[in-house]
Write a structure and sequence with these properties.
- It is built from 1 helix and 11 strands, in the order H-E-E-E-E-E-E-E-E-E-E-E.
- With 219 residues, the chain is mainly beta.
- The longest helix is centred in the N-terminal third of the chain and has 27 residues.
- The chain starts with a helix and ends with a strand.
């Protein structure tokens, strides 16, 4: 009920942020990612992770990727060190030329370890992830390292968020990609927060830019 009331209270904010993202993306050619990341606490040790990401080449309507991911996590210590085993399904629509797309399906298992620390008021998060990927019958293995920092703004529900994540393959092109992100967040409650940010993906074949709207929920 608390989460529902919070969502109703901030619905106008979400609509305004989403409209701004769509307008800016449409005008500039930037992509945008609409992301929901949730965590359900079972007890002091166990939790269930779930997320949905709707990724677009520009504004809503030109789908790049739909990502569905879930998993079961276990806290080694109270809230600071979490092991997780998960599964993801990824539907991609990749352009083969200016007008035509090809659909690509991927099944993915992943294992990750997250550790959180404090440096004064700044929150740090390290995430180490291994992914076993089956892309149209082709097996791939990938390693990811994520470093995130959260800077609270004093006496305010707002905060700044930055991260960098590097992706490494086990074969072919060893370097897969690097993501750099910066954004501003708003904490509505201990269970719900919003972020709006800008992300650059550096790839072997070039780079991509996205505007990200993210909802974080824990209950």
């Amino acid at each position: 009920m608390l989460i529902l009331n919070s969502l109703i209270r901030i619905l106008p904010v979400i609509v305004i942020m989403l409209s701004s993202v769509m307008s800016f993306s449409q005008d500039s050619g930037l992509g945008n990612w609409l992301v929901y990341i949730g965590s359900k606490k079972i007890d002091t040790r166990w939790n269930i992770h779930h997320e949905v990401q709707y990724r677009n080449y520009n504004a809503i309507g030109d789908l790049e990727q739909l990502l569905l991911r879930g998993g079961v996590g276990y806290n080694l210590t109270e809230g600071n060190n979490n092991l997780l085993l998960g599964y993801g399904y990824i539907h991609s629509e990749n352009y083969v030329n200016a007008d035509d797309k090809v659909n690509v399906g991927e099944h993915r298992l992943f294992q990750q370890f997250i550790t959180k620390q404090k440096a004064g008021s700044i929150g740090l998060q390290h995430r180490y992830r291994i992914e076993e990927r089956w892309v149209e019958g082709d097996f791939k293995l990938r390693f990811r390292y994520f470093l995130g920092l959260k800077f609270p703004l004093k006496q305010s529900p707002y905060y700044l968020s930055v991260y960098n994540e590097i992706f490494i393959n086990n074969k072919d092109n060893v370097f897969d990609r690097n993501r750099t992100y910066g954004g501003i967040g708003y904490k509505l409650s201990d269970a719900l927060r919003l972020e709006l940010g800008y992300m650059n993906q550096f790839l072997n074949a070039g780079s991509r830019d996205q505007i990200n709207l993210i909802v974080f929920s824990s209950f």
